[in-house]
Design a protein that fits this description.
Radius of gyration: 30 Å
Distance between the termini: 29 Å
Number of helices: 25
Strand order of the largest sheet: 5-4-3-2-1-8-7-6
Length: 784
């Protein structure tokens, strides 16, 4: 055993050194820049040597532990060695550079970006075409496609590359990398990696086989934990949900049915075609902070500002949260009118602070001044008529959308030109005369014009209905707060019931667990319905930004809690609390989460698999963290059965860790495959990639409890599991707002949310384990 302990210390010691190195490297990259980090850290032979030592020591550890007697465990560890071997071969033998081609021009050389050496291709490559594909009916790019000819001495072949589509020829792989602004040239990334890439993919395949095979193998630690005697079914408790009412009040606008017809018009908004109601929803939300105003729908609010601006300029509808901006405007309370932004002399009250901000001066409430000004500019642009692009005109097989204020193409007929330029004046006249029937007829004509001009590129009626429904039911914050309240009440209720009735069994108290289960399932189904509706509207799997991935994470949490409730008494309250926090953070960061088209690089099925696997892993890690928090609460509140509960929760957490780590590993390497197809490199040491690797290693360590015996102690395990979740928070939030990188485009959760998370972390991750440790130490001393 002593020999094995030395092997363990060497293997895991160097792994911990690597963890520290990786974490510091991301910080150094932020300070010194990416080129510095790549040259002096990731690309250095010292870094490669550290990985080499880890590989050799890991191989020695595998032999010493006789893992070959457990085939799937042996294959799992061996696959990582194969992957590292592939990476080493890529580093030492691979070449990569770029070729810039103009239409009709040929090239047969490229410069290796690693060492600036020139490489000659065994063929000539000639660009024969380049085109940008757009989402139907919009000017938003969906793909970039380059076609070319490969010419040898005696033969010729054709090839094509696009985003997420690679072309291979004679050991060289070509990727779409960029294009010239005149669309007459393209930049191709060319890569040669004859040894490293195939060996790396073999490693990925072995890893997949091993992870799947592990759960079907007998006599594994995972199987043993499932049969652990500490697992018992325990009853829990629940609560009620509260609601509210809205205040109704009238305002000068069009009737609801006419406004609804206006909302059914289609328009180009944020590079996609959507109902005008969606713009009205975002418009009202931007001004007022809610999607309705008093008793008025968002379409009525928009039509009111559009058709009755004089009556609305004194309405207190513009939300101003900052006290400093409120003082500048001279208002009492957090709502201002349009008129409040101007003095008696019609001087704009924010002109001077905005001028100082543009000069780079550091003034108080600068961010909120800019936000307030954006709302006023939004109203100005609405009055100018440049926002509502509701007139589609066919152009070269695509649609170009125009507003009444735009310069129209000369090819339009006089009637079409009059319809576009005079339609809103006509609607204003009808609104002034309260002639709602004539207004409805005009709106019908506008819809007819749209269908005639847009044809098959417009939205189907079912999609319009779906998006209008989504705009009405997409209320995340009430669900988040409801889940939090239910979860917190249920948690404290359970502790109280257990104190009074420690031997309480589920058969003695069925109604509350049943009610909890129904509410949990209903919450999960509602969020699932929202994300499915969002996916149908956007015609893509909705996992392309932070708001969508947070919703998917909440679904994973709720369904996991539902299916695991019979194994753990804490699954349901934890499911409510964890999902509530996730939904609350997503709502805080994106109170107006517009549906947008995905960037071309994100249009890959591998994206959905990559995100789904990682979000499910984070869900399991979240439950492990909540189990640790519950353990500390048992200790702090001095329960008689605290030791038993700590052991029980540690067993449950270990069960969660196995699929959690495996899902994270699979997600990381699916992401690596996607990166190789999209960017030509399966690993670039981007900060989020690096922190995902750090998280994987941190959570993998407790799976080696037989070698790292401290993890067999339940209290230490819970402390480690709690602090390990900091790596998840760093990976998901910290990278976006502290480190940046290629993956930060998906980070739209919001700085305020990061501050909230920081406060929660300070309380939970520092004070809670400290109090529990002091109490636990006292308990141990008393027992001895």
């Amino acid at each position: 055993m002593k020999k094995s302990s030395y092997t363990n210390k060497i293997a895991f010691g160097f792994l911990i050194i690597m963890l520290v190195t990786l974490a510091l490297a991301t910080v150094i990259e932020k300070i010194k820049g990416t080129d510095f980090a790549v040259t002096y850290i990731y690309g250095s032979w010292i870094f490669v040597g550290l990985w080499f030592i880890i590989t050799i020591s890991a191989f020695a550890y595998i032999l010493q532990q006789k893992m070959y007697k457990r085939p799937m465990v042996f294959l799992l560890h061996l696959s990582f060695i194969v992957i590292l071997l592939g990476a080493f071969l890529t580093f030492t033998t691979g070449t990569q550079g770029r070729i810039h081609l103009r239409l009709g021009e040929s090239a047969n050389t490229f410069i290796d970006k690693k060492n600036n050496t020139q490489h000659v291709l065994p063929f000539d490559i000639v660009l024969s075409g380049f085109q940008i594909n757009y989402y139907p009916g919009t000017q938003a790019p969906s793909d970039y496609v380059s076609t070319f000819k490969i010419i040898y001495d005696s033969e010729e072949t054709t090839g094509q590359v696009s985003m997420n589509k690679v072309f291979s020829e004679n050991g060289f792989r070509f990727y779409q990398s960029g294009y010239d602004m005149d669309e007459q040239g393209a930049m191709l990334l060319v890569k040669s990696d004859k040894y490293g890439l195939p060996i790396t993919y073999v490693g990925y395949f072995l890893l997949l086989v091993a992870m799947i095979g592990y759960f079907f193998s007998k006599n594994t630690e995972f199987r043993r934990l499932l049969k652990h005697p500490a697992l018992k079914q325990v009853a829990i408790a629940v609560l009620f949900m509260a609601g509210g009412t809205t205040v109704a009040n009238g305002q000068n606008t069009v009737p609801k049915d006419v406004a609804k017809k206006m909302g059914e018009l289609q328009m180009l908004y944020r590079d996609r075609i959507c109902p005008l109601e969606t713009f009205a929803h975002d418009f009202t939300l931007k001004l007022y902070g809610k999607s309705t105003y008093k008793s008025l729908s968002c379409e009525q609010v928009l039509s009111g500002w559009l058709l009755y601006p004089g009556q609305w300029k004194d309405e207190k509808i513009i939300k101003i949260k900052d006290k400093g901006v409120q003082q500048r405007l001279g208002i009492n309370g957090k709502y201002a009118s349009f008129s409040d932004f101007f003095s008696d002399g019609r001087d704009y009250k924010l002109r001077e602070p905005l001028r100082r901000i543009r000069l780079g001066e550091d003034i108080e409430s600068a961010k909120d001044i800019i936000a307030a000004d954006e709302k006023i500019q939004l109203l100005f642009m609405l009055q100018l008529g440049v926002l509502l692009k509701i007139f589609p005109i066919g152009s070269q097989g695509n649609l170009v959308w125009y507003s009444p204020a735009d310069v129209l193409p000369e090819s339009l007929s006089e009637n079409e030109r009059l319809l576009i330029q005079g339609s809103f004046d006509l609607l204003t006249d009808y609104a002034d005369g309260k002639d709602w029937e004539a207004m409805g007829t005009t709106l019908d004509k506008l819809q007819l014009f749209q269908r005639k001009s847009g044809g098959a590129l417009l939205l189907f009626p079912r999609k319009i209905v779906a998006e209008r429904l989504y705009n009405k039911v997409n209320t995340i914050k009430p669900i988040a707060m409801g889940n939090l309240l239910i979860g917190i009440f249920a948690l404290f209720y359970f502790f109280r019931r257990e104190k009074n009735y420690p031997d309480l069994s589920p058969s003695k108290f069925r109604i509350i667990p049943l009610l909890l289960t129904v509410l949990l399932l209903a919450s999960g189904l509602f969020v699932f319905f929202l994300i499915c509706l969002r996916g149908y509207i956007s015609s893509r799997i909705p996992l392309g930004n932070g708001f969508e991935t947070m919703q998917f994470l909440a679904i994973c949490i709720l369904f996991l809690a539902f299916f695991f409730q019979r194994k753990s008494f804490l699954s349901i309250p934890f499911g409510f609390i964890f999902s509530g926090l996730v939904l609350l953070v997503s709502g805080m960061g994106a109170s107006n989460p517009q549906i947008t088209q995905l960037q071309p690089v994100l249009l890959s099925p591998l994206l959905s698999i990559h995100v789904s696997l990682i979000m499910m892993a984070y869900t399991l890690f979240g439950f492990v963290t909540l189990n640790s928090i519950a353990s500390f609460l048992y200790v702090i509140f001095g329960r008689q059965n605290a030791n038993n509960r700590i052991v029980q929760l540690s067993v449950i957490s270990r069960i969660f860790l196995y699929p959690g780590v495996f899902l994270l590993v699979a997600g990381i390497f699916v992401g690596a495959v996607w990166a190789e197809v999209s960017w030509g490199t399966y690993w670039s040491w981007d900060p989020k990639e690096t922190w995902a690797l750090i998280t994987m290693i941190i959570y993998a360590l407790p799976l080696h409890a037989k070698s790292l015996v401290r993890f067999e102690k339940p209290f230490f395990f819970h402390c480690y599991a709690l602090w390990a979740f900091l790596s998840v928070l760093m990976t998901y939030f910290g990278v976006n707002y502290l480190l940046g990188g290629l993956h930060s485009y998906g980070g739209d959760i919001g700085l305020n949310s990061v501050l909230v998370i920081f406060v929660i972390v300070s309380v939970i991750f520092i004070l809670l384990p400290l109090c529990a440790f002091l109490k636990y130490r006292k308990m141990v001393l008393l027992n001895n």
